[in-house]
Amino acid sequence: xxxxxxxxxxxxxxxxxxxxxxxxxxxxxxxxxxxxxxxxxxxxxxxxxxxxxxxxxxxxxxxxxxxxxxxxxxxxxxxxxxxxxxxxxxxxxxxxxxxxxxxxxxxxxxxxxxxxxxxxxxxxxxxxxxxxxxxxxxxxxxxxxxxxxxxxxxxxxxxxxxxxxxxxxxxxxxxxxxxxxxxxxxxxxxxxxxxxxxxxxxxxxxxxxxxxxxxxxxxxxxxxxxxxxxxxxxxxxxxxxxxxxxxxxxxxxxxxxxxxxxxxxxxxxxxxxxxxxxxxxxxxxxxxxxxxxxxxxxxxxxxxxxxxxxxxxxxxxxxxxxxxxxxxxxxxxxxxxxxxxxxxxxxxxxxxxxxxxxxxxxxxxxxxxxxxxxxxxxxxxxxxxxxxxxxxxxxxxxxxxxxxxxxxxxxxxxxxxxxxxxxxxxxxxxxxxxxxxxxxxxxxxxxxxxxxxxxxxxxxxxxxxxxxxxxxxxxxxxxxxxxxxxxxxxxxxxxxxxxxxxxxxxxxxxxxxxxxxxxxxxxxxxxxxxxxxxxxxxxxxxxxxxxxxxxxxxxx
Length: 556
Description:
This protein has 556 residues and is α+β, with helices and mostly antiparallel strands. It folds into 3 domains: 1-13 and 155-262, Arc Repressor Mutant, subunit A, CATH 1.10.10.10; 25-153, Arc Repressor Mutant, subunit A; 315-543, no CATH class. The chain has helices at 38-49, 65-71, 75-78, 82-93, 103-106, 147-153, 164-167, 172-186, 196-203, 213-232, 265-280, 299-352, 359-378, 383-386, 394-404, 409-425, 431-443, 449-460, 467-473, 500-512, 518-555; strands at residues 20-23, 51-53, 59-64, 96-100, 113-117, 119-125, 128-133, 138-139, 144-145, 160-163, 191-195, 235-243, 246-255. The strands form 5 sheets. Strands 2-3-7-6 form a 4-stranded antiparallel beta sheet. Strand 8 (138-139) and strand 9 form a beta hairpin. Helix 8 (172-186) crosses helix 10 (213-232) and helix 20 packs antiparallel against helix 21 (518-555). The model is unreliable at 1-10, 349-366, 368-376 and 464-485 (pLDDT under 50).
């Protein structure tokens, strides 16, 4: 809500959660009988913010020491020192509003004035503040009224609205001046004019030392303006008014360009959703975006944070789409190659179909097909490894098969898996790294996984556990350090939850002639179930994150 711009009536609601206070002009600090310190002004604001009126017109306000500490970073409050607590609650609890007629200004001798206590009772009990508003009826202008209750209930036109997060950072002089700026802005003004007496009245100054503009300026005006500009973001300046060489007053004016506007509910909701989405997408440095602290931001700052988060999300989506595009292109290339081979094979069959003299050649083709089936069967023990990489190129697949021949058949799969684990641990980006490891083992006569482990440990000294335990423990513990870099930023990354994997897996089995086998169908069904369950888990995680953020807001 914009504190310096006129608001719609529907938006004029105090909000304990965000610290927004909608206050009657009757409760301006300049209308109170006793001037208070900046911490007492905050305490009084909290009493108004937490006010509660029951059906019988009984008005109270209850809040805790923790609520006070949210806005006042004061050692005395944090340690619960009685002197500060007693002094502040007494000053607030015994204050009153002053009601007077116009004659008190023009003709004080014949004017009328009445002071009305704001609170009938106040208590502090083990960190809990409790105020009871004064709802006593009084006679005013020939009628009986309950002024304090009437003020609390009144839907006032253009009330004073400020955020306690901002207000609490101002000094006492800054707080009273800020209220006057808010009040004037609501009335469509952009300047205030005070003579010296008006300045002394504004800041509640007495004594001979505060009779000159120099002292007022040094002790109150300049510090007030500096605090407002720094924390409220209002562009406030002042200009002395002179009569000859004598300063008789001051003109204060301001701009709205830097005004602080509390974040809206829509911004808060969107920020929480973005936080959950970016977390699930493994966005780098998501905490640095400050999406979780959006409730305490101004509207402009909140929008900047949201825009940055949206930009980050778009970049992530763009990269993901590029990955999908690359995968699709690879898939299309594989299919095109398969279609090309099918056309070649069909052309061979067509050219031989009616050539009786070439019938033995047909038998040769059948023999070739049988040889291929035998080759597939020969290396079926490596399917578990190849099934993890359905998009692997034919060239790389053939290279892995060729190298696997140098290892014991019963050990080949374990050797390939060990090399693959080393590649992942080293964050290598291509299968060439894995093939390099396998070639080195083959060149050095490695036949079994234990020999491979021993060779790698002796030469590189970074294998922590053998393959028999690594596979088991890898499911419960990561062997590499955690990184903020998203998994999908790795060029070799395959999104295990992408439904397109099913299509690629089916194409793989079709190319191998194993699509109709029960084993292949079972694998495809299992993979489809895993993807569906994984996507459901991600959505559940998102909803859980959103629920946590909502709970955090409520707790605050």
